[in-house]
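Cross-check.
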Amino acid sequence: MPTSLARVQTAEASRYLQQLCRHWSHKFPVESTSEYGTVPFGEDRICTFEAEPDALLMRIRTTDPAGLTRLENVVSDHLMRFAFRESLGEITWSRAA
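Predicted model, tokenized:
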């Protein structure tokens, strides 16, 4: 399944992870703790978050390559909205097979 990864430098990784998971929990069966979260956007579209002390790790997996780009944008846009007080810079996604 095609995968995309992003690592965003921030000391607020746990807070953002929890905000993102809480936001999507209204539509999807989200599982989360303060250090790890999973958002199943569909049977074949999953986003996971991991909070490290200095970064938020995000991983998106989907069978649809075009959907991968859309999800990257959706996740990035939401993170940027929640982190409006902090300049996270550009979120760079890298593709893995």
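The chain has one domain: 3-83. The first helix runs from residue 13 to 24. Passed to J.P. for a second look.
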